Amino acid sequence: MATNPPKWQTPKLERAVIQWLLNSDPAIRWQVMRDLTDAPDQEIAMERARVAGEGWGAQLLALQKADGSWSGVAWNRGWNSTMHVLMLLRDMGLDPASDGARRAVNLVRDRVSWRGDAAYDGNPFFNGEVEPCINGQVGAVGAYFGQDVRGIIDRLLDEQLSDGGWNCESVNGSTRSSFNTTICVLEALLEHELRFGSSPEVTEARLRGQEYLLERRLFRRRSTGEVIEQDRKGGRAWTRFAFPTWWHYDVLRGLEYLRRAGVARDERVGEAIELVASKRDNDGRWLLEIEYPGEMPVEMDEGEGHPSRWNTLRALRVLKWYSAGD
To answer: How far apart are CA 82 and CA 203, in angstroms?
Structure first.
């Protein structure tokens, strides 16, 4: 097994890929500058500031309704709701301190509430609802934008299962965790720590959940060691990479979490890293392998089966993180 997968890139190929990434939206460019180049901090900050006023970020902010929502609801299955747009803005790295971010998030906080089941009907948006996969996503965007989501975090801590992960079906009696739910919750706990500082109970729960993934080498069954070919709930292969991922888990998303968490190099991750490296095409890019059905509020890639700037950026920085542990 390869011990340093990033060596597959020649300097010439890498330069061409970086240039292709930079020839894009500010949401991509500033992250490429931060994670893959030696750009000065001031230039990175200037590029990041453009997310609120140009391109995809500005388009998303412009779609917000006067009631503070996107598409009139806190959440839906069509990927264009308030929660999903805030997730995209977080992925784009919209500066929480920017005027555009503060204005948009304050409107959500003050005007958007959950509708539906009596268990959460009328809850303010950042109070969340009842499913840990949804609350994980709300908690992640809320913490990123500096909102008080401690109520969600406390609820998630109480819902952790004995194997270390989480499952939306636990309310129906499930005692085994789900990769899908667990990654959503882990991202929320990590975002809360990054924004508000660590606390013993949050860190302990997050590390237990993190170990749930590592024990399974990010995509194998703990019991037999076999590759989990498909997600039982959604029928999606975890070895195929999507963006946006929404509530779905895949190997690249798991590695991105570990990278952001600053996890030390672990041999249990090696096979997942090798999988990512193997998916590079002859031009040094990664494809959008899955595009989940629904209505994207803005189009950011050329579609399923085509080279994806988002997946290429994410794959390159994961490989860089792993190789730095040599």
So the answer is: 28
What SS3 state is found at 252?
A: helix
Tokens 């096979």 locate to: 271
Q: Is 100 helix (H, G, I), strand (E, B) or coil?
A: helix
Model pLDDT, residue 1: 35
Q: Each residue of 153-187: b (16+ CB within 10 Å) or e?
A: bebbbebbbebbbbbbbbeeeeeebbbbbbbbbbb
How much is the mean pLDDT over the chain? 93
What global pTM score does this model have?
0.94
Cα separation, 266 vs 111, whole angstroms: 44
Q: Is 226 a residue whose pLDDT tops 90? A: no
Q: Are 287 and 307 in contact (CB under 8 A)?
A: yes
Tell me which amino acid residue 120 is.
Y
The structure tokens listed for 213 are 């993934």
The amino acid at residue 241 is: F
Q: How far apart are CA 296 and CA 312, in angstroms?
A: 20
Contact (Cβ atoms closer than 8 angstroms) between residue 33 and residue 44: yes
Q: Do residues 243 and 311 touch, judged by C-beta distance below 8 A?
A: yes
Q: Which of these, 115, 29, 18, 10, lies nearest to 72 by C-alpha position?
A: 115
Do the beta carbons of residue 314 and residue 252 sit within 8 Å?
A: yes
